[in-house]
Amino acid sequence: MSVQDLIAEVGDRLTPTERRIAELVSREPTLLAFGTASVLAQRANTSPPSIVRFATKLGFSGFSELQTWALEGLSRQLSSPSARIRREQGAPEDTRAAINDAVQKTFAALDPAWLAAMAAPLAEARRVWILTGETSMAGARVLQSGLSMARADVVLVDEQSVGRDLSGAAMGDAVAVFDFARYRRSSVAAAQTLASLGVTIVAITDGPLSPLASLTKRWCELRVPAAGPFDSSVPAVVAAELLVAEGVDALGDRARDRIDQLEILWRATGTFVAEP
Q1: What does residue 190 show for φ and ψ, rounded to 5 degrees?
Q2: Interval 216-235: pLDDT, tens
Q3: Could you tell me which of 99, 120, 112 has the C-alpha nearest to residue 234?
């Protein structure tokens, strides 16, 4: 989502001064990323408090949060896989540090109370659908694998068959959707359609301005660092593991009975190599 998209969503509520600021940052978005509130105020012929009010009108807590968002967006534009692979890569220890930091932030984002709120519909729903983009596929597969061993009717939806697979989705179902910038159109469009049908959305995404965050109160913000030319899958996998564990706990005896039955079937079919 661009700053122009944010402005368009609140355009009818902007004051004349805020419209002047909006026109400025639309023309020169780098001012938003690198300028101060004072610089923007001077260029827009207004005051720094008006810049702060403009930021809150766009949904941020203040100018600093808006500027951080703008910087991250600029960083993403400059950090597509094709751009990353063409420039010198960071040292392996930098990647390890970034992933470690992202994992710690994932734990913080999914504190016990919030984790329980997100996992509850995945345990209680009639059916659970899982939507994902390519870069977040690892987390989606972990959630599908773990949750389907604890309960029935957990479906990872293939991007090529979204319409067919989701044609039976209805109120009483839940959708877990994994997606991060750059957001996959099919995942976002499917989640928006299901939300309009009253299906409960659980979103694992990267911030309040994600198109998924506006669909539900049950969403978490993950930091997704670069791992070489691509985005790391680790935060999504960690979130999925935590959701599975919480979901199994919420299911209680139902999960234990299902897993016991799985063990019986695995032994009967010789699923695993016999231990010596």
Answers
A1: -65, -45
A2: 999 988 888 877 667 888 99
A3: 99
Q: Give me 143's structure tokens.
A: 């959630």
DSSP state of 171: B
pTM of the model: 0.69
| Contact assessment for residue 206 and residue 232, using Cβ atoms and an 8 Å cutoff | no
Tell me the C-alpha distance between 128 and 105, whole Å. Answer: 26
d(CA 106, CA 217): 17
Domains of the chain: 3-77 (1.10.10.10), 100-267 (3.40.50.10490)
- SS3 for 87? coil
- Separation between Cα atoms, residue 186 and residue 127, nearest integer Å: 20
By the 10 Å C-beta count (0-12 exposed, 13-18 middle, 19+ buried), 258 is classed as: middle
| pLDDT above 80 (res 113) | yes
Would strands 219-221 and 226-227 be described as parallel, antiparallel, or unpaired?
unpaired
| Token representation of residue 42 | 């001077």
Contact indicator for 146, 154 with CB cutoff of 8 Å? no
**Percentage of the chain lying above the pLDDT 90 cut:** 45
Name, in order, each residue with C-beta under 8 angstroms of 228's C-beta and a sequence gap of 6 or more. 84, 85, 89, 95
AA letter at 223: R
Please, which residues bridge with residue 132 across strands?
A: 178
Peptide bond into 218 cis (omega under 30): no
Q: Is 270 helix (H, G, I), strand (E, B) or coil?
A: coil
Strands 230-231 and 226-227: antiparallel
Residue 229 gets the label, from left (phi > 0), alpha (psi -120 to 50) or beta, of: alpha
Q: Which residues contact 138 (CB under 8 A, 6 or more apart)?
A: 233, 236, 237
CB neighbours (10 Å) of residue 116? 15
